[in-house]
Amino acid sequence: MNIKTLSFNIESNGFTDLIDITDEIRSIVKESGFKEGSALIFAPGSTTGITTIEYEPGLLKDYPAFFDKIAPSGDRYHHDETWHDGNGFSHVRAALQGASFTVPFKDASLLLGTWQQVIFIDFDNRSRKRNVVVQLVGE
């Protein structure tokens, strides 16, 4: 087995901004020279997440609405008292979401379902420049 670790940057708007990063991951796998293995996609930062979703207009509204119900931005968070940055909700949402996701690949193609895309989520309360790490294990 071989390991390659690469990364790419994206700009996000915050406030549960959902960004489809599937094409970037596909390109990294194709250019890696690996034919079969796994791609670990990781979002460094305590207010971001990675998962898969069907990237369509309805879910682009439903997913943020779900997080507004379970970790509302208007609630009181002790984190905000510590740092006074108003993004306590962002940290709670990111912890619930998770910072990484693994996708297998074969013949240098991601083994995703027909309606499945890999997404980056920025839960912070402002726009940010972000980094996404992709670690490939394969041959």
Radius of gyration, taken over Cα atoms and rounded to an integer in Å = 16 Å
Global geometry: elongated
CATH class: Mainly Beta
Number of strands: 8
Q: What is the topology, as strand order, of the major beta sheet? A: 1-8-3-5-6
Question: DSSP strand (E) fraction?
Answer: 35-45%
Give helix % range: 25-40%
CATH architecture: Sandwich
User: Quick one: CATH superfamily?
Assistant: YjbQ-like
Query: What is the fold named in CATH at topology level?
Result: Jelly Rolls
Structure characterization notes:
The structure is a single chain. The chain is α+β, with helices and mostly antiparallel strands. It has one domain (2-138): Sandwich (Jelly Rolls). It contains four helices and eight strands; from the N terminus they run E-E-H-E-E-H-H-H-E-E-E-E. It has helices at 22-32, 57-70, 78-83, 88-97; strands at residues 2-12, 17-20, 36-42, 48-53, 100-106, 109-110, 117-122, 128-138. Strands 1-8-3-5-6 form a five-stranded antiparallel sheet, covered by helices on one side. The N and C termini lie close together (6 Å). The mean pLDDT is 97.
Layout of strands and helices, then pairs:
Blueprint: E1 2-12, E2 17-20, H1 22-32, E3 36-42, E4 48-53, H2 57-70, H3 78-83, H4 88-97, E5 100-106, E6 109-110, E7 117-122, E8 128-138
Antiparallel strand pairs: 1-8, 2-7, 3-5, 3-8, 4-7, 5-6
